[in-house]
Write a structure and sequence with these properties.
This protein is mainly alpha-helical. The chain has one domain: ADP-ribosylation/Crystallin J1 (ADP-ribosylglycohydrolase fold, Orthogonal Bundle). It is 58% helix and 0% strand. It contains 15 helices and no strands.
Length: 268
């Protein structure tokens, strides 16, 4: 889960048109980095799992505390509505918040079921649900199989995403894309081509698209596969989060045993 937040923070400065890049050579943390809605809603999903809480309730409760996190217009309307209803969205918001499901649940069936639940509170379009399920399953498979070929083949077979393209093939013509179908496959490919957690984040951002969301999706899968997040990145994440968001993140990591790969979380 820290990998998701790290990807969001690192990618936050490269999302806007004038800052989008097509290279892996960039400062990992810019002075203008910040967490965005990707982090807030990921933490909300994690909180719901920890508390046994309804996803809608947790997302609205935590989301409303950070009204300037960068939500889309339709989501803002839903977030503050007196009678919130799903709005048939297919954009990548369902995929960027779902990674805790892949860390918390221990069967493929349960992961897919819970991922659907996290999506359909807002993103009940088939592509919105599909994007969330593919992301959560990729995280689950990354932590349980450690086999990139198996992950690739399983996601392709279940969701009909084309994961056989290379980043070099995608990068020249890839543009800002907020759809699940135009984000999730690319984020998974960024992981598949990576050699380390940091390399995965750099791959995702180098595509020049919706950088924070691409990197947060990639970051969750990479953390699961590589067994953690480097200490210096974890420390930076802690520095940049509010205490509330950090405490939920820390508790989730402790509860689901995702501390491997950095210093014991209580010492950070």
């Amino acid at each position: 889960m820290i990998g998701v937040i790290a990807g969001d923070i690192v990618g936050s400065v490269y999302e806007r048109r004038r800052n989008r890049i097509k290279t892996k050579d960039f400062p990992l943390f810019s002075p203008n980095c910040t967490f965005t809605d990707d982090t807030v809603l990921t933490v909300a999903v994690a909180a719901a799992i920890l508390r046994g809480q309804d996803y809608e309730k947790a997302v609205r409760e935590i989301g409303q505390k950070y009204p300037n996190a960068g939500y889309g217009i339709s989501f803002i309307d839903w977030l503050f509505s007196k009678n919130p209803q799903p709005y048939n969205s297919w954009v990548n918001g369902s995929a960027m918040r779902v990674s805790p499901v892949g860390f918390a649940f221990d069967t493929e069936e349960k992961v897919l079921t819970e991922a659907k639940k996290t999506a359909e509170i807002t993103h009940n379009h088939p592509e919105g649900i599909k994007g969330a399920q593919a992301t959560a399953l990729a995280v689950f498979l990354a932590r349980t199989t450690k086999d990139k070929n198996f992950i690739k083949n399983t996601i392709e077979d279940k969701f009909n995403y084309n994961l056989s393209r290379t980043l070099d093939q995608i990068r020249p013509s890839y543009r800002f894309n907020v759809s699940c179908q135009g984000t999730v496959p690319e984020a998974i490919i960024a992981f598949l081509e990576s050699t380390s957690f940091e390399d995965a984040i750099r791959n995702a951002i180098s595509l020049g698209g919706d950088s924070d969301t691409l990197a947060c999706i990639t970051g969750g899968i990479a953390q699961a596969y590589y067994g953690g997040v480097p200490d210096h990145i974890t420390k930076k994440v802690k520095e940049m989060l509010t205490d509330e968001l950090w405490q939920v993140t820390k508790q989730f990591c402790r509860e689901f045993g995702i501390e491997t790969g950095f210093e014991a979380i209580d010492k950070i």
